Amino acid sequence: MRWKPNVTVAAVIEEGGRFLLVEEETPEGLRLNNPAGHLDPGESPAHGCAREALEETGHAFEPTALVGVYLARVAKGEGGEDVTYLRFAFCGRLGAHDPARTLDHGIVRTLWMDIDELRASAARHRSPLVLRCAEDYLAGARHPLSLVHTHASVTEIGGAHSGG
């Protein structure tokens, strides 16, 4: 069997010293996370991040920089399934909120937390990367969006090429 990490995208959204998070239902109970989710077929990581932020918070979001690329393993559920995540975390501009928009299934609410609250709630984080992404953001980690190149074969219908 070939090993394949789960590719995820996350929005690191900070305003006035507070980070926008989601509280979501998981098999392990209520957990805190960045607005984040799996990269969908046919989208770039930046586009996927904008989509996930909208779906999970009801806010438009425009990625302006890559905070970092992260790899983490998590044991999932009672069986302890070993899952590896490859996360692309972006920061950017938070846009308008659509109060009529229904949030993604499993999202209980959005909330704002400062870094001290985020550190104090680490046991409730869905991923060990939630705090790390915020810490890297506060340390000034910003990389150009062009660092992650999405070849046209990803977004074009019938544009797949063989090989990696």
TrEMBL record:
Catalytic class of the enzyme: hydrolase
Enzyme Commission no: 3.6.1.-
GO molecular function: nucleoside diphosphate phosphatase activity; ribonucleoside triphosphate phosphatase activity; thiamine diphosphate phosphatase activity
Keyword Transferase: no
Membrane-crossing segments per the record: none
Source organism superkingdom: Bacteria
InterPro entries listed in its UniProt record: NUDIX_hydrolase-like_dom_sf, NUDIX_hydrolase_CS, NUDIX_hydrolase_dom, NudJ
CDD domains hit by this protein: NUDIX_Hydrolase
Cofactor needs: Mg(2+)
Pfam families reported in the protein's UniProt record: NUDIX
The keyword Nucleotidyltransferase is assigned to this record: no
Keywords recorded for this protein, A-Z: Hydrolase, Magnesium
Extent of the signal sequence: none
Subunit structure: Monomer.
Name used for this protein in its record: Phosphatase NudJ
Gene label: nudJ
